[in-house]
Design a protein that fits this description.
6 helices, mainly alpha
Length: about 120
């Protein structure tokens, strides 16, 4: 019998991933209006560390298959971004060497603007 966590595992795991990313981002970049940078950094590390057991338990409820599927999705998104950047550099190099037709053909064959591939980098 499916549980709520297994039924909605995709959305739940995405929410956990988003929360962890936000906490890591806060930990790295912080907020300029806080009184002491060091105190804020420690506070964020503690918040992230406190949430880890909760996130692990929720992932367990969602099931190993859903967690692995989500991890694979994240890895695939990262690979698309990496390949998009590589392709962008290759097309730019072709243009600089005067092979504009080849560069345009590669972009056309891709079917998606290279900028769209790299836009995914911000959402992962």
């Amino acid at each position: 019998m499916p549980t709520i966590a297994t039924t909605f595992s995709e959305g739940i795991i995405e929410a956990i991933h988003r929360e962890e990313a936000e906490l890591r981002s806060e930990n790295l970049y912080g907020y300029p209006y806080r009184p002491s940078w060091e105190d804020v950094r420690k506070e964020r590390k503690v918040r992230l560390r406190e949430r880890e057991p909760v996130h692990a338990l929720v992932r367990q409820w969602c099931g190993q298959e859903a967690v692995e599927r989500f991890d694979e999705l994240i890895a695939l998104r990262n690979e698309v971004v990496r390949l998009g950047k590589l392709l962008d550099r290759a097309v730019e190099a072709l243009r600089k060497r005067g092979a504009t037709t080849t560069a345009a053909t590669i972009e056309s064959d891709l079917g998606v603007p290279i900028a769209m591939l790299m836009d995914r980098d911000r959402r992962t």
